[in-house]
Amino acid sequence: MKKLLFVFLLLYAELLFSQINEINKLEIIPKEIDFKGSVKKITIKNFYLHKKNETIDTVKAISEIDFSKEGKIKLLKDNNNLLYDNWRIVEFDNLERIKSISKKEGHEMTNVTNQYFNKKSEFPDSTIINQNKKYKVKFINFFSKNLVVRHEHYINDTLQEYRLYKYNNRNQIIEDLYFNPEDNTDETMVSDKSNGSYQLSFYPERKTFYEYKNNKDTTIVIKIQQKYSRKEVMKKIKNKISNVEIIEKYENNKLKQKRIINILKDSISNLHYRYNNKNEIDSYYNKFINSKRIVTKWTTYQNDKESIYTINIDIVNDDFNNWIKKIYSIKNVTDHIIERKIEYYND
């Protein structure tokens, strides 16, 4: 059984504290693939209704996903604009890791990305991206005990930058060290006035450290960037009722942002707050989701009147209790429709 969208949001939060994975499958796999039973294929059609010049303009997009009998994705084909015969084709291995990404324009097929794996890690040994014949990007991971310890970035076979990772005895990352051959200053912003011109270059912060704490049902991960006094604190709270993740961002020991994701059995809330220098909430953007409704509430500045945006969802299920149609409406006007055709292995 494929899990719900909630899992994707959890994984997104976890990615804040992990190594770089150049091909993020959470951004590639459609979110509408939850199902029960032995599904062979799901075809998803999206209909977006836009009012334009007092007429309704419908834009269609389609995704086709093939599954193994174990419920893992084997192949994804998608087209985000059916006015053109342009498809993206994504192949997965038997561990549901992305092997290749190709583009099909009419009858012409172009291989864009390849990933190579020797281990069971989600991180590939190498990723090669061919943007065109003259521009090739390559990323190489080096492993020790199945953990990535070095990550290299090349353009046309020339090293651009690399990262070194260190771990504690629980295999948790504790150091992320960034190096760039062109920048030995340990500065994130470097200016160059040579050759009669002014050039400004930006680099990631060189040193990032991680700390871990556990308190009963709460796990705390602290991400520290000392040079500019930045810190992120992620708290995970798991119990029988809910999963909660809290991400706090600090600068100079002052709270700047807080994000709270609360996942229940049949709903999710995603709360995002910004703070001023007095540690007061300056603005917020909060979203509440269940199977029937999406409610968004926000302000843009302190003491601003709250704005509310509600989307209602009508659902049609098939005989296996998998949804095959969702109609999204705003103030009783249809805005967006998703239709699914589901093929089962026992059909």
Notable traits:
single chain, 347 residues, mainly beta, 22-stranded antiparallel β-barrel, two-stranded antiparallel sheet
Molecular structure report:
With 347 residues, the chain is mainly beta. It has a domain at 182-258. The protein contains two helices and 24 strands. It has helices at residues 5-15, 25-28; strands at residues 39-52, 55-67, 73-79, 86-92, 98-105, 108-116, 126-132, 135-144, 147-155, 158-167, 173-179, 189-192, 199-202, 207-215, 218-225, 230-238, 243-251, 254-263, 267-275, 281-290, 293-299, 307-317, 323-330, 333-344. The strands form two sheets. The protein has a 22-stranded antiparallel β-barrel. Strands 12-13 form a two-stranded antiparallel ribbon. Strand 19 (267-275) and strand 20 form a beta hairpin. The longest helix is centred in the N-terminal third of the chain and has 11 residues, at 5-15. Mean pLDDT is 87; it is low at 4-17.
By DSSP, the count of extended strands is 24
Distance between the ends: 17 Å
What is the H-and-E element order? HHEEEEEEEEEEEEEEEEEEEEEEEE
Q: Assign the structural class, choosing from mainly alpha, mainly beta, alpha/beta, alpha+beta, or little secondary structure.
A: mainly beta
Largest sheet: 22 strands, antiparallel, barrel
Q: Which consecutive residue ranges, at least 5 long each, have pLDDT under 50?
A: 4-17
Helix content: under 10%
Percentage of β-strand residues:
over 45%
Instruction: Determine the mean pLDDT.
Output: 87
Helical element count?
Answer: 2
Radius of gyration, taken over Cα atoms and rounded to an integer in Å: 23 Å
Overall form? globular
